[in-house]
Design a protein that fits this description.
This protein is α/β, with parallel strands linked by helices. The protein folds into three domains: 88 residues, Rossmann fold (3-Layer(aba) Sandwich), CATH 3.40.50.720; 209 residues, 3-Layer(aba) Sandwich (UDP-N-acetylmuramoyl-L-alanine:D-glutamate ligase); 133 residues, Mur ligase, C-terminal domain (Protein-Tyrosine Phosphatase, Chain A). Helices cover 35% and strands 23% of the residues. A nine-stranded mixed beta sheet has the order 7-8-6-9-10-11-12-13-14, with helices on one face. Helix 1 packs parallel to helix 7. The longest helix has 16 residues.
Length: 443
């Protein structure tokens, strides 16, 4: 069997190693440069690779192709593969064939990294043999190849879900669906929403689907995606029969005659959006029959996720917060909503079809000044010029931090929450967040 892997990042390199160990004839092709660490990994396993090109003749001779999630379907090589009816799948689909472990799969437009990390923390605290994979941490395929975990907590982006066909989650969690990545979905919201619902495909008796009962887009499509799995809602709007809810002061879980309550003040993660994340994790813990003290302790002592509302430093009374992972409007809405002091807001990057009007009321209430961090900031200026008195532009994280510091007053918060992708000025959102933190710490 000839397997071609397109893209030699974390996902692609891991897939190649697993395929090689399973006896495939493997070829890895990356249209860009391949990082040294991945070249070393491929070489160590005797895998043939190319960079800065796609050799069409070799690729179109494949029996099957695994495509990295960052590669859109509209690129010429993927179109050519589809024209030849060569199956194109995701790393998760491929690795799932060889995975015997219990899978807990989390998707959603916002909150999925935090919820994934929180559930992983909970399972580890309970002493389970667990791996963290998908859109976070080490490649799922590489772990299936080299480790022997009993459980995997897997964060799934819509791009990963798009390439999944036979894969099945044992526990699936859908946090919410709000506009994101619409540039990959022909700017049609329904396409994106249906992509998210792929997380429930192939589920049946004995499986569990956790979903937010307060999310209108989820509720819109839910009736079409019923199967024999148990459906467990979580809500901030009052009691549910089986699942989780909050009454404003406490979080409650009801699951198969078991009840669990915890004061919201005890939760490590603050803010309304994090109550949803904590509820989803608590229900998952109950489905997995974890002891209540493990669930309670994990929700109380979780340290949070890097680049997600991450406190960085306080300089002369000004607090710097890194929320670089906020790459869409909804994420930045949550960030601004949770702020309790005046904000100097760093926003901008590669716009994915943003409607800044959704943030208008929060910006009027909370934002003192805006620093635009991007190559093209016209859309941000168009939305907020005349609404916010001071809007300045910056072309680097260092410049953005310097300008923010000058504009902030003692007691203010400088919030990097870009609402955009990072690829105009940075490698990725992590690079953006790290540069922001470094610049803030140098003040």
């Amino acid at each position: 069997m000839k397997l071609v892997v397109l893209g030699a990042g974390e996902s692609g390199a891991g897939t190649a190693v697993l395929a090689k160990l399973k006896g495939f004839e493997v070829f890895v092709s990356d249209f860009g440069p391949i990082k040294k660490e991945y070249k070393d990994l491929l070489n160590a396993h005797g895998i043939t690779w190319e960079e800065q090109q796609h050799s069409q003749e070799i690729i179109l001779a494949a029996d099957e192709v695994v495509k990295s999630p960052g590669i859109p379907d509209k690129v010429p090589i993927v179109k050519a593969l589809k024209a030849k009816h060569i199956p194109v799948i995701s790393e998760i689909e491929f690795a799932g064939r060889y995975c015997k472990a219990t899978t807990i799969c989390i998707t959603g437009s916002n909150g999925k990294t935090t919820t994934t990390s929180l559930i992983y923390h909970m399972l580890k605290s309970a002493g389970l043999n667990v791996g963290l994979a998908g859109n976070i941490g080490q490649s799922f395929a590489l772990q299936v190849a080299l480790e022997n975990y009993d459980y995997y907590v897997i964060e799934l982006s819509s791009f990963q879900l798009d390439g999944m066909y036979e894969f099945k989650a044992d526990i699936a969690i859908l946090m919410n669906i709000t506009p994101d990545h619409l540039d990959r979905y022909e700017y049609i919201m329904e396409n994106y929403s249906r992509s998210k619902f792929r997380v429930v495909q192939n589920m049946g008796k004995g499986d569990s689907f956790l979903y937010c009962a307060d999310d209108p887009e989820t509720l819109k499509y839910l009736p079409e995606y019923q199967n024999e799995a148990e459906y467990l809602p979580f809500s901030l709007n009052g009691p549910v029969e089986n699942g989780a809810y909050s009454d404003g002061t406490s979080l409650h879980v009801k699951y198969n005659n078991s009840e669990f309550s915890m004061n919201i003040e005890e939760l490590a993660l603050k803010g309304k959006h994090n109550v949803y994340n904590s509820m989803a994790a608590a229900v998952a813990g109950h489905v997995l029959h974890l002891r209540k003290e493990f669930i309670r302790d994990s929700l109380a002592n979780f340290q949070g996720v890097e680049h997600r509302l991450e406190p960085v430093v306080k300089v002369r009374g000004i607090t710097f917060i890194n929320d670089s992972k906020a790459t869409n409007i909804n994420s930045s809405w949550y960030a601004l909503e949770s702020m309790t002091t005046p904000v100097v807001w760093i926003v901008g990057g590669v716009d994915k079809g943003n409607d800044y009007n959704e943030l208008m009321e929060l910006v009027k209430q909370k934002v003192r000044a805006i620093v635009c961090l991007g190559v093209d900031n016209a859309k941000i200026h168009a939305a907020f010029d005349g609404v916010i008195a001071t809007i300045v532009d910056a072309k680097s994280a260092e410049e953005a931090v310097k300008r923010s510091y000058e504009l902030a007053e003692k007691g203010d918060t400088v919030l990097l929450s870009p609402a955009c992708a990072s690829f105009d000025l940075f490698e990725n959102y992590e690079d953006r967040g790290l540069q922001f933190k470094e610049a803030a710490r140098k003040l």
